[in-house]
Fold each of these.
Amino acid sequence: MTGHQVLVVGVGAARGVTAEEVRASVCAALAGAGLARAAVVALVTVQARVGEPGLVGGAALLGLPLSAHPAEELARVPVPHPSERVLAAVGTPGVAEAAALLGPVAGGAPGELVVPKTRGVGARPRCTVAIAAHSDSAWAGVARRVANEPSHQQTT
C-alpha cells in the first residue's frame, strides 16, 4: 500500500475476556510489529461478541470505536489462518483477520493484513488480534463517522 495509511485492529474473543487483556493484546501486537497506536482508527469484531464487556471495555481503554460485522459477512473474507473451532463457536472460520481486513464498515476496499492473527497476552489468552492497513482516503472518514453513530457506540 502506498500513501497515508490507517490501521484497523480485528479482535476475536472468548466470553469472559477482560478489558485489560484486550488492551494489552492490542498494544503488544502493535509494539511487536513496530506500528504506531496513533494510526489505529477502530477495533472490529464479530456481531455475536460486540456486547462482550471485555471488548467494550478494551475499546474504551484504548479510546477507540468498536464495531462489528455479522458472522456471514466475515465468513466471505478469505483468511490465512481459518479455525474450525471458531467456525463452530461463532459461525465464521476467522474473526480477527477477517474483521481487520473488512474494516469498520463493509463495502469498502479491503485492507492489507500487516499482522496476522496473534494470540492475546497472558498465560491463557482469551482473545486474538490481527491488524490491517487501510488507505486513509478510503477509511479514515468512515471510521470517524462510525465512532459517532449511536449504533456503533458501546458503553461500559
Amino acid sequence: MKSRISQSVGYIGRCASVGVVACAAGLSCHAAGWEALGFSLDSGVVYDDNVTRGKVDSDRLADSAMTLSVSNGAVVWLAPHYRLVLNGSVGGQSFQNYGKLSHLDVTADGELQYRASADYMAPTLGLFAKAAYEDYGSFARDGARYAVGVSLRQAVTDRISAFAALTAHARRTQSAVFSGNEASLRMNLDYSLSARQTLYFGAEYRDGDIVSTGRSSLENITIAKVMVSDDAFEGKSMFSYRMPGKTAMLNLGYNHALGPQGAVDIAWRYIEATPDARPSWATSPRSYTSNQVFANFLYRF
C-alpha cells in the first residue's frame, strides 16, 4: 500500500526549504511580476518492508517500487511582502511484486507566502492548498487527495533552517475503506554540512483514519469502521480495514548536490500507526510499523 504520508522526501523538499532562506530578501522587496521555476525530473527507488500495513508477521508483505515524476512551476510576485508559488506534476510508482499498488498521479498545489522584512532571521508564513488524482491498478484505491494548511519557514542559523506545517487531509476513492480524513502536524530541520551536502530530519503526527490490510480477524472486524476484500493482493485472501487512529512518522535523510542542476538523495522513513480502539481480549501487536528506504535523483532543467 502506498505510504500515507507525503512523498516530498528528497531533494525537492530540501530545495524548497533552502530556497526560501536563500531568497529571503527577494520575498520582502521583489517587484510585482512572475518567474518560471522550470522543469524538474525526479526518479528513484523505494523499498517498503510492510506495504500491507499489517500488524502481525503473517500479514506483513514487503515490496520495492520505481518512482518517476516531472514537475513545473512558477512564482508570482503579488506585492513587496507577498508571493504565490504554484506547482504542477505528473508521476507515478511501479511496484515489483504487487502491481495493483502501482499508480499514476497528477498533482497541483499552490502556496501564498508572506515575509514581513528582509532580515535574514525573519520567518516566512504560508497558506497552502494541494489536490491530486491517483489512478491505481487497484480500482478501489482510485480517487483524489486534498490538503489545506498553514506553514512556517525559519532560518535558525546560517546552516540550520526549520519548517513546520499544520495540515488537514482528505481522501476520496472508489471504496469507502480508502477514503478518510486526517489532521497533521509536521516539522523538519535541514542542516547544511557544506555547500553541496545537507542532512535533514523530519517528524510528523497525524490524527484521523488509518488503513491496515491483513487476513480476516475478529479484532479488525470489531474495531473497523468499514472493510473490503482487497484486490491488490490476489490469491492471499486479504481484507483492508479503515479505523480511527494516530500515526507517528520520522524521516532521516542525506542530500548531495552534483552541481547546480542535479542531486542525489538517500532517506529512511519510519511509520507507526495505532488504532484508537482495542478489544480487551486482543493479543496481537497494538500498532503496525513500517520502514521505508528511498534513493532519488533530481535534475532541474
Amino acid sequence: MAQLILFNKPYGVLTQFTDRENGRATLADYIDLPGVYAAGRLDRDSEGLLLLTDHGPLNAQIAHPKYKKPKTYLVQVDGEPTDEALEALRNGVELKDGMTLPAKVRRIAEPEGLWERDPPVRYRANILTSWIELSITEGRNRQVRRMTAAVGFPTLRLIRHAIGDWTLDGLAPGEWKVIEVEAPPATHRRLSPGSAKPPRRDELPAGDAGDETKPAKRPAKKGGYKSARQRSQNDTGQSDGGTGNRSGNKQGIDKFKRGGAKPSRAGSRPNSRSQSRAKSSPQARPKKG
C-alpha cells in the first residue's frame, strides 16, 4: 500500500514547499508531513485538488501524461459559451504548442456550496458569467485557460475537482486528508544492491545460480585474420624448411626494417656513390701552351 494525500489548494498557494526568494505561500504552510511530493502541478492562481505522495511509481502514474488519467475542472468563464464553442473543445483546439486532444465538456450551474475566493473574481454587472465542467487527459502549461480563450470565452476562475477517481468532496480550502491506495509496481528493478548492473554468477546466493551447466567452450577457429608480423613469422618458418634463399632474403628485409643496410638482390647493378660520382665528373682538359 502507498500513502496518498488529497489537498484542497487555496488560491495563491504555490505547489512547492519553499519559496525563499519571494516568501509566497507554499505547501509547507498547510502540510507538515515529511517526504511527500506533489504529483503534478496546479497553477498558483488555480484552486482545488492537488495530490501528494511519498511513493515514486504512484507519483509517476498520476502525473505522467502517458497514463492519460483524466482531470476534471470546474471553470467559470467570461460570457456564455455557444454550442459551437463547446463542440470545438470536444474536438480539440489549435494552440501555439499544437492541437489538444478531445475533451469532455458540458454546461453546469454554479456549483453548490462553493467557497468564496480570496481575492474575489472581478464582478462586472453588464457581462454575464457561466460555468462549464471540462475534463482533459493532458497536462500542458495553463492548458484549460488557453483552451477556453481559444474559443472566445476566457477563464475567470478555475477549480480542479477530480483526478481520476479522487475528488475534493468534503475538503474545505486548505484542508487535506491521507488515504491508503494500492501501490503500483516499480518501473525498474534493481538487480543487485547498490548497483544497476546484474550480479555475476559467483555473487549469487547458493541455489540462485540454477542447475544449468556451463556450456563447453568452443574450440578456437584456425585461420582468420593475421597481422603482418604473424604472416612474416610463418613465411620464415616455411622458408627454413625449403630453400635458404628466401630465408636469407627475409632476414635481410627484417634487418633493413630495423635500420640496417638494404639487402642486396641477385643481378642488381652496383650503386656506390664513388662510381656514380666518377661517371658524372667531367674529364680534365689539356692546358694550352
